[in-house]
Automatic annotation (TrEMBL):
It holds the Pfam family GFO_IDH_MocA_C3. The lineage of its organism: Bacteria, Bacillati, Actinomycetota, Actinomycetes, Micrococcales. One of its GO terms (molecular function) is oxidoreductase activity. This is Oxidoreductase. Residues 38-160 form the Gfo/Idh/MocA-like oxidoreductase N-terminal domain. It comes from Zafaria cholistanensis.
């Protein structure tokens, strides 16, 4: 198969995602301060930005200083709702986020624009000297991601892809159970995520310029389970189709690992599904509740022992964990998170580039580099 060859990090051992301090068992709540208060800006005012703003306000050492949107009225309404001190909208000379990045008091920004804009917006933020937490997928392709990583590295700034799932206690508990050997060796993994999305070509999910489609929007969550349990694969195959606009409504992905282990991932914008992850092992199996990217419970089924369910209560909308990690890293002078390092983002983008080559999936951004 073309397009994907495993490169570092190979990490074939299971549960190699380290547990962040705020998600470990018995750890302090993610809302408790770990250092000085940081001034935050939020770029874009969509649904995810609303949830993140709510959780950001729970942190003892975070202040929501500013928000930006193309629409000044929307930015002002968002600021009023979430207690942001300032709001910025587009003007003839500068987009709203440009004004926000020019604000000397903003230290760290959360970028919630559509995927197709991540590269240019994150680049502008880093060039303005801001630390960056950017919605997944970090960029459209590996070339864009590598440029952002190099810029962050050279600028001495923190940069992280906002794969919030990696920081949740339920995920770390699951990886701990699998790593403990209680269920034996991992044999295979299945993870699916999908929903029937209204097929409006103007919606970012169906817009090629926005980086629309199931792969970049949904597949990162099933992939998080595969990477957490098995590491990055030796090879990857994708089967799927493209609609009349060249966007992928659905794909099945098979990842192959040493010793015959496999992961099967499904991402769909056309079908409803259980939205869970199942890890099959030689002495039992584990399954998440719905949804797999924020599971309220885990089912553990050891062979020859009692089945059990472990439940997890959310903190706000559960974005507090990635916000705590970002805050802690910046306070400690780290440029990348040990739990969501740049290598993992780059390996993910290379993997997606390879899968896109198999699907024939192209985006306008691909021509820029």
């Amino acid at each position: 198969m073309t397009g994907y060859t495993a490169r570092e990090p190979t990490a074939s051992a299971p549960h190699f995602i380290p547990v962040p301090p705020c998600a470990a068992e018995g750890a302090p709540s993610p809302v408790h301060a770990t250092g000085r208060t940081l001034n935050w800006g939020i770029v874009s005012t969509g649904t995810v930005a609303e949830l993140v703003a709510h959780d950001l306000l729970m942190l003892e050492d975070a202040q929501l200083l500013a928000v930006s949107s193309r629409d000044a009225a929307r930015a002002a309404a968002f600021a009023a709702k979430h207690g942001a001190v300032r709001s910025y909208g587009d003007t003839p000379e500068l987009p709203g986020h440009g004004h926000l990045f020019a604000d000397p008091e903003v230290e760290v920004v959360y970028i919630a624009t559509p995927h197709g804009q991540h590269y240019e917006v994150a680049r502008a933020a880093l060039e303005a000297g801001k630390h960056v937490l950017c919605e997944k997928s970090l960029t459209i392709n590996a070339a864009e991601a590598a440029e952002l990583v190099e810029l962050a590295r050279a600028s001495g700034l923190f940069l992280m892809e906002a794969v919030w799932t990696r920081f949740l206690p339920a995920i770390h508990r699951a990886l701990g159970i699998i790593g403990s050997g209680e269920l034996g060796e991992v044999a295979w993994l299945h993870a699916d995520l999908g929903f029937p999305a209204d097929q409006d070509p103007r919606w970012r999910l169906w817009d090629p310029a926005a980086g629309g489609g199931a792969l970049l929007d949904l597949a990162v969550y099933p992939l998080t389970w595969a990477v957490g349990v098995l590491g990055f694969p030796q090879s990857a195959q994708a089967a799927g189709w493209l609609n009349q606009d060249g966007v992928d409504p659905q794909e099945a992905i098979t990842l192959s690992y040493p010793r015959g282990r496999q992961a099967q991932l499904m991402a769909s914008l056309v079908g409803s599904c259980p939205r869970n992850a199942t890890v099959s092992c030689t002495a039992g199996w584990l399954r998440t509740g719905d949804p797999l990217h924020n599971p309220p419970f885990l089912e553990i089924h050891p062979v020859g022992a009692e089945d059990r369910i472990e439940r997890f209560d959310p903190v706000g909308h559960n974005y507090a964990y990635e916000l705590r990690e970002t805050t802690r890293c910046i306070q400690e002078g780290l440029q990348q998170s040990p739990t969501m390092p740049w290598d993992h983002t780059l390996a993910t983008m290379r993997l997606f580039d390879g899968l896109r080559a198999q699907l024939g999936l192209k985006y306008p951004n691909d021509h820029h580099h």
